[in-house]
C-alpha cells in the first residue's frame, strides 16, 4: 500500500504492507501471528520518520462448542508491549442463528476506571453473515461504541 502525508506545503510518501499467518492446529486451538506496518518509512525533506512496525501473536482455545478463550501480545517499535485476554460465549438459536457474547481486557489503556475493559455482542446467521457491537471505555476520552458487519464468501 502507498501512504502519503502532508504538512503545510511539504509532502512525503512511502510503501507499507501487513502480513499474517493463521494456523488451525486442531479443532480446539488456533494460533495467529502478524507483522504490521512493514515498509520504507516516510521522509520529509531530510528528516526520516520510521513506521510503527508492530508484531502480534495470539492463541485461541475452544474448550467447548460454545466457548472461546483467547490471549494475545503485541509489541511495536515505538511503544511498550501490550497484552490482552478475552472470552466469548455463543448462544445457538436453532441450526443457523447464533448470538455471541464477549468480554475482554487489554493492557496499555489503563488511564481511568474501566479503561482496558471491553464488552460486546453479536448475531451470526449460518456462519456467513453477522453484525457485531462492542463497548470500549476509553478513560477521559469517553466510551467508544464499535459496530461491524461481516460477510464470508
Write up what this structure looks like.
This protein has strands at 2-7, 10-24, 29-39, 42-44, 47-49, 54-61, 67-76, 82-93, 97-106, 117-125, 129-137, 143-151. A hairpin with a 2-residue loop joins β1 and β2. The chain is globular. The model has no long low-confidence stretch (mean pLDDT 89). With 153 residues, the protein is mainly β. It has a ten-stranded antiparallel sheet with strand order 1-2-3-6-7-8-9-10-11-12, with no helix packed on it. Strands 4-5 form a two-stranded antiparallel ribbon. It contains no helices and twelve strands.
Helix-strand blueprint:
Elements: E1 2-7, E2 10-24, E3 29-39, E4 42-44, E5 47-49, E6 54-61, E7 67-76, E8 82-93, E9 97-106, E10 117-125, E11 129-137, E12 143-151
Antiparallel strand pairs: 1-2, 2-3, 3-6, 4-5, 6-7, 7-8, 8-9, 9-10, 10-11, 11-12
Keywords summarizing the entry:
two-stranded antiparallel sheet; 12 strands; single chain; ten-stranded antiparallel beta sheet; 153 residues; mainly beta
Largest sheet: 10 strands, antiparallel
Mean pLDDT: 89
Structural class given helices, strands, pairing? mainly beta
The number of distinct helices, counting runs of at least 4 residues, comes to 0
Helix content: under 10%
Radius of gyration: 19 Å
Helix-strand sequence: EEEEEEEEEEEE
| Uncertain stretches | none
- Biggest sheet, strands in spatial order? 1-2-3-6-7-8-9-10-11-12
Terminal Cα span? 24 Å
Report the count of strand segments.
12
Strand content: over 45%
Overall geometry comes to: globular
Amino acid at each position: 500500500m502507498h501512504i502519503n502525508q502532508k504538512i503545510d506545503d511539504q509532502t512525503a510518501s512511502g510503501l507499507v504492507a501487513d502480513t499474517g499467518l493463521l494456523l488451525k492446529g486442531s479443532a480446539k486451538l488456533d494460533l495467529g501471528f502478524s507483522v504490521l506496518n512493514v515498509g520504507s518509512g516516510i521522509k520529509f525533506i531530510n528528516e526520516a520518520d520510521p513506521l510503527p512496525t508492530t508484531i502480534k501473536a495470539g492463541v485461541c482455545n475452544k474448550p467447548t462448542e460454545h466457548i472461546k478463550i483467547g490471549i494475545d501480545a503485541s509489541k511495536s517499535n515505538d511503544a511498550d508491549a501490550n497484552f490482552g485476554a478475552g472470552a466469548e460465549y455463543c448462544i445457538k438459536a436453532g441450526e443457523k442463528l447464533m448470538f455471541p457474547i464477549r468480554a475482554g481486557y487489554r493492557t496499555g489503556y489503563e488511564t481511568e476506571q474501566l479503561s482496558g475493559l471491553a464488552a460486546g455482542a453479536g448475531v451470526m446467521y449460518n456462519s456467513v453473515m453477522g453484525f457485531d457491537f462492542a463497548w470500549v471505555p476509553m478513560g477521559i476520552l469517553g466510551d467508544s461504541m464499535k459496530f461491524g458487519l461481516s460477510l464470508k464468501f
